[in-house]
Amino acid sequence: MKEARAARQAQALQPKAKAVKIVKEAKPPKAPKAPKAAKEPKPAKAAKSAKDNKPSRADKTAQKAENLEAAKKATKKSAKT
Questions:
Q1: pTM exceeds 0.70 for this model
Q2: 56 with 50: CB under 8 angstroms?
Q3: Whole-angstrom distance, CA of residue 72 vs CA of residue 65
Q4: In whole angstroms, how large is the CA radius of gyration of the chain?
Q5: Of all helices (H) and strands (E), which one includes residue 74?
Q6: 50 and 58 in contact (C-beta within 8 Å)?
Q7: pLDDT tens-place string over residues 30-79
């Protein structure tokens, strides 16, 4: 035990090897790229097309209100007719 401890301490007292610093080589500068040709402007799009003709949220609420009004008017009919 004592010998092992003495060996460890002796090892710890030894000078430690330092990490070697990596020297990076400078790369030659890249040649500038030629400018790209200007693209033609795209044709203007129409207003947002509804996906699969789905009604918007405002349309849905308006439709619900109309249906509610129609239901209220329908219940007011007399039972005699």
A1: no
A2: yes
A3: 11
A4: 42
A5: helix 57-75
A6: no
A7: 999 999 888 888 888 776 665 667 778 899 999 999 999 888 887 666 66
pLDDT tens per residue across span 4-19 = 999 999 999 999 888 8
- In terms of Cα–Cα distance, which of 48, 72, 76 is closest to 64? 72
Query: How many CB atoms within 10 Å of residue 47?
Result: 5
Tokens of 42: 């795209």
The two three-digit tokens of residue 64, written as one number: 């619900």
Buried b (16+ CB within 10 A) or exposed e, 9-21: eeeeeeeeeeeee
